[in-house]
Amino acid sequence: MRFDGKVFLVTGGARGIGRAIAERLVAEGARVCVVDRDRTPTDERLRSVRADIAKEREVTRAIAAALKWGGRLDGVVNNAGIADPEVGPTEDLALATWQRFLDVNLTGAFLITKHAIRALRESRGSIVNLSSTRAIQSEPDTIAYAATKGGLVALTHALAMSLGPEIRVNCISPGWIVTDPHAKLSKRDRAQHAVGRAGRPDDVASLTAWLLSDEAGFVTGANYVIDGGMSRKMIYA
Predict the structure, then answer these.
(1) Fewer CB in a 10 Å sphere around the end CB: N or C, the chain?
(2) Annotated catalytic, 145?
(3) In angstroms, rounded to a whole number, what is the distance separating the alpha carbons of residues 162 and 75?
(4) Which strands make up the sheet holding 168-174, listed edge to edge?
């Protein structure tokens, strides 16, 4: 119960990786405020606040609600984002689509961080940003997603230098994480990973919990790639 008495805020925590992170933190003794556009089941240790993190007024309201409920804030996980990376050919990409990716995936993390800083300084807390291996490699027609995920990696080390030593800031870049428990992966899919399988939300949740804990007290500004070795594999067509 290393998080007994701690309060965390997780964006995009209604499902998938965000949900696994919230549940892991609660299992280790924390109280968690989930900020999402969708409601999530709550109890005395899990609070749900509906908000669009791309809108500053809604972010300030969400942070205020979390502090009123928890009385403190020990860590923030910026997980929320547009999950579908494919946007089509660059020459056909609408500016509105590009801007929406920026607003949600990158500006949202900035806004949450901006309005959580005062509380995190008081607790000497920690921030974990969720990027993607697409920050360092790409498929065609995914430029908006890749650009925002790369921006999160840069935002991480910039914040680490700006907010330290009181606040640590780190980043996780997951690879292929299967969020559907009923999904069936082929032998070829599994073979793409050096560990012989795709990732699970719990894999990311475990690393997130460590980065938020005092055990990672000497770690800041880092980006952890968690992809089963997939991005290290040399492929010659």
Answers:
(1) C
(2) yes
(3) 17
(4) 46-50, 31-36, 7-11, 75-78, 126-130, 168-174, 223-226
The answer for residues whose C-beta is within 8 angstroms of residue 20's C-beta and 6 or more apart is 200, 201, 202, 204, 205
Can you give the three-state secondary structure of 194-224, one letter per residue?
CCCCCECHHHHHHHHHHHHCHHHCCCCCCEE
Catalytic residue among 48, 67, 145, 153: 145
Enter the pTM of the model. 0.95
Rounded (10°) CA dihedral 98, 104, 110, 112: 170
